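User: I'm writing a tutorial on reading structure tokens. Could you give me a worked example: one chain, its sequence, then its tokens, then a sentence or two explaining what the tokens reveal?
Assistant: Sure. Here is the example chain.
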Amino acid sequence: MATNKKQRKVVDKLLTSFGVVATVALLVLGGLAWATYSFTTTNVHTELAAQKIYFPKLGSPELASPLIGPYLNRYAGQELLTGSQAKAYADHFIAVHLSEVAGGQTYAQVSTASLANPTNATLKAQAATLFQGETLRGLLLGDAYAFWSVGIVAQIAAVVLFIAGGIMLILVLLGLGHIAAS
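And here are its predicted structure tokens:
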């Protein structure tokens, strides 16, 4: 009987020790995930703020299109500062305007036509506009929205890790209490 009790105490100590290590690991990983969230979202905000991009004001002609207004009205008049705003602006403002530049053709299509006809000033202007617009759209989607999304996922991971760390801490405390009582 004493041997079983002694073995049980050894198992309790091992499990509690594992719990301490797991608690520390979960809290450290949670801290790293939170730092990732903070770093990415702060940098996205800072870089977007430097661009000073504003959504058109509510009721403005720029928001009248059914391809634009329903998606951007909620941001009307605001400065573009978040990843979700960057995605909305890229997909429902820039993309719509780019589709109107050369009858829906892409930069690659217009550029190819411009190279085939180097004296056509209209094609050159369209190619330049499409290049600039598609580049800005790509930066907003690839840099701002993508990194902001990574930050949001890191935030969720941090919260889950902190909760799991808290649960493990409670289990460790219960384990220590069980060891002390036996």
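What the tokens reveal: The two ends are 13 Å apart (CA to CA). The helical segments are 2-51, 69-72, 83-99, 107-116, 121-181.
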